[in-house]
Amino acid sequence: MLERPAAGERAVIVQLDFGREDLAEEVEEVRLLAESAGADVREVIFGRRHSPDPATFAGKGKVQEVAAALAAADADLVIFNHELSPAQERNLERELKCRVVDRTALILDIFALRAQSAEGKLQVELAQLDHLATRLVRGWTHLERQKGGIGLRGPGETQLETDRRLLGNRVKLLKDRLARLERQRGVQRKARNRGDILNVSLVGYTNAGKSTLFNALTHAGVYAANQLFATLDTTSRKLWLEGAGNIVISDTVGFIRDLPHELVAAFHATLEATAEADLLLHVVDAANPAREDQMAEVGKVLAEIGAAEVPQIIVFNKQDLTGLPAAAERDEYGRIRRVRVSAVTGEGLPLLRQALTEHAAEKIQRLAAERRPSSVDDPSTIHDSLIDSPITQ
Prior knowledge:
The chain is an alpha/beta fold. The chain is built from 12 helices and 11 strands. Helix 1 (23-36) packs across helix 4, helix 4 (103-114) runs antiparallel to helix 5 (118-133) and helix 5 (118-133) runs antiparallel to helix 7. The longest helix is centred in the middle third of the chain and has 35 residues, at 159-193.
């Protein structure tokens, strides 16, 4: 497992500018990520480049600046808010004489810290091992050649090869366990989908308030905090709606810019439930200036997991921080597509319940029509996959 930074470990963050306009938001996000992992951020080093340096990503001069900052801050960890190659990571650690963590490893570390369920822990370990597989050489460079001598002659396998084989065995074991859990989850989902109950999943950028909204709707008492990736394990609850009966609503893991592919692959079984939902509540932090960029990032992940075509309701949360009233907007078909709410104060929640009620009633009507032998209704015409642009703030 990836070593997690100890609480209070002194860190220097490196953020390079390759021409992006949202640099301030990126820096604030990585600072929150570092603090979520238990780091004490002492300094942020900025730099501008046209392209990454092949050897050290940042270039010789910037690496010297980082080394000076490490000494001045008495820090022992460098966090790059970028994805580093194994060679770049090794070269940087050699030059800086301390541990270097890239964005992917940092996010994986936070997931390891937050995972609570047995399945969540298996998924995180699998993602970490996939990431670690490309970096094994770092710890075994002195054992690349086969040793000889008494007690060391044997199968003709170097230590590095042995370690890779053992890691491969562990990865296979984890995948087998997750496959069994995925089959069990699939059976449960199929049983739910055969009924008339509407299945709803909450999705959105991390820290948009999904768990707070989930608790406000279901009174489930799920852990919610003002931190990144507070929720990893999917939680489902029934929600009673006047005029529509019960629906099932699920709280899911939050998304983030450049979400590591290892995590998307490892959490496939969990994220698959999102793709099979009848409706997505796309929760957006309405008070965040970068909300449109965050919505776009969520859209990318939804497309990657096959959920881009699932109907959505855009829920602009934290309405109490914007000074705007709770409101709902309907599309040209009369369906509620955007709602402004506050999960903390409860404003706008009746409008969201109304939207859910309409979708639940629509599913019941569609299924009833499908069961009639003479029905010629086309289910694909019941929902559209239009994702509206944000409410003008």
